[in-house]
Amino acid sequence: MEIRQLTDAAEKQAVTRLILEALPEWFGIPEAREEYIRESAGRIFFCAYDRNRPVGFLYLKETGNATVELYVMGVRKEYHRRGIGRQLFRQARDAAAGAGYAFMQVKTVQMGKYEEYDRTNRFYLALGFREFEVFPTLWDEGNPCQVYVMSLE
What we know:
By secondary structure, the chain is α+β, with helices and mostly antiparallel strands. It has helices at 9-21, 24-27, 30-40, 84-98, 115-127, and strands spanning 2-6, 44-50, 53-64, 67-75, 103-109, 130-140, 143-151. The chain has 5 helices and 7 strands, in the order E-H-H-H-E-E-E-H-E-H-E-E. The protein has a 7-stranded mixed beta sheet with strand order 1-2-3-4-5-7-6, with helices on both faces. The two termini are 28 Å apart. Residues 1-153 form the N-acetyltransferase domain. GO terms for molecular function: acyltransferase activity, transferring groups other than amino-acyl groups. Pfam families: Acetyltransf_7. InterPro entries: Acyl_CoA_acyltransferase, GNAT_dom.
């Protein structure tokens, strides 16, 4: 497995589309998926490759002068539980710290709503994120937004 930081906007968008379309359980709302694809072009972006085939990615979005958000992450299902997300995260965390950010945040659906997102929550907690706040209606009542944070210092 190889992790690369991508800089070409079109390549970032192509990878984002390829991976997110393979993950309808998490990215099944077309408008949201297209927004993630559009947003990817100008972001700090990492991609995991298996024999030059993209199998996962993540990108970061600045949310404040000291804070960056792990804005979106996806790993093809057949590659889950192989440490790819953890490798992508480590590269992104190091890049964010190197760029001078003090904090990283991530948003997901609150634990206890959906099994797919409960696995996601457990993954973020295992990476070292800590619960920060829940916004019950940020997205909608059926998807309460859990915010996790971590210090990069």
